[in-house]
Amino acid sequence: MSDNEYFTPSTKPATKSRNLSKEIRDEFTSIKQGFDLLPQMTGNAGGLVGVNSSEDKLESKTATQVRTAIEVYSTSETYSSSEVDDFLDEKATVASLSNHTSATGTAVHGLGNASIKTVTTGATDVTTGHMLQTGDAGLLLPSTGSPTEITDFTAYYPPGKYRSYGTATGAPVASGTNYEVDVSRGPSGYISFFVKTVTALQANQRLYFGSRITATGAVAWVELFHKSNILGTVSQSAGVPTGAIIERGSNANGTYIKFADGTMFCTHSLSTACTALVDTMYRSSVGIVWTFPVVFADDPVLAFSNTCTNGSVGDTSITPTSSTFYASATRSQTSRIVHAFAIGQWF
Fold it and tell me: Where residue 283 sits, what CATH number does that domain have?
């Protein structure tokens, strides 16, 4: 038997010796002293064993002592990172690492700051210092994943990517539309929303921007324009545009173009005859009435052109709904085309 730090056998009693009880007792005492260098098993289930500070015996280590030992490994690099990793893989549990973090807040060698951070508890967990998981704030979602739904735009949602519907409280447009939502928070606590409709049809795609200066409350929405919604029906509320930028249309009374700022153009081509001699000019025998294709908000301004080289057109009355004018020429004409143009405001 070779010598070791726990028990060094003596040569006593000698082989086949008799009546040497004292020497036998001494040898057993030496064996007991060797066992005394080992920690007790009772009460230390699942515990770890380490050398004491005097380096003369083994002792059971508490969780705090084990964590301290890990910190020493990490700080002084007495052991290589692979040795510490092996130790953690074989001896440490998730619970013990969690205890280490909460108790000391010290990084484990080889794991960096990750060893002292707590992961988020959900997609909208905004606890300072928590580590993100896949899907948090709507990021890096798998193909089958879905971001958190905003059901009330007046409530607070931390910055991130969300989904919503037109039926949500405070939505930009009350409808059954599906939305993708990006939420941002400014340095002063301002909240902004960027909302995109989810549709396969380009003509139905819409973009909305909303903001408020408080964490919660009503959102001020505006619609953003692109090639799919520049043209459409213009509208306004108290002088503020609420529809498309340009509206174009026509009917039996001509063509009109409305602009979001309230400007409106109307054009029409009318046929008349200049056969009534008045002094030295021929003119239309009755006034030509042009009922505008759309009613103006006030009297518009009119301009005319005609197919007669030596002639003119003049209006005699203008209202928001129509204009009456006469055409004249230096010679009699049974067919003459007058092009009329009116500009004014639709609101």
Answer: 2.60.40.3940
| Judgement on whether residues 71 and 106 belong to the same structural domain of the protein | yes
Whether this model's pTM surpasses 0.85: no
pLDDT in tens, 272-300: 888 788 887 787 878 889 999 999 999 99
In sequence order, the β-bridge partners of residue 266 are 256, 342
Q: Are residues 315 and 257 in the same domain?
A: yes
Pairing of strands 149-152, 160-169: parallel
- Is the Cβ–Cβ distance between 309 and 267 less than 8 Å? no
The identity of residue 258, as a single letter, is: K
Residues belonging to the chain: 347
Q: CB neighbours of 159 closer than 8 A, spacing ≥ 6?
A: 137, 183, 184, 185
CA distance 184 to 159: 5
Pairing mode, if any, of strands 246-251 and 240-241? unpaired
pLDDT tens figures, 90-122: 554 444 444 444 444 555 555 566 666 788 888
User: Is residue 341 within 8 Å of residue 266, measured between CB atoms?
Assistant: yes
Mark which of 170, 192, 224 sits at the end of a domain.
224
- Give CA–CA dist 127/134, Å, rounded: 16
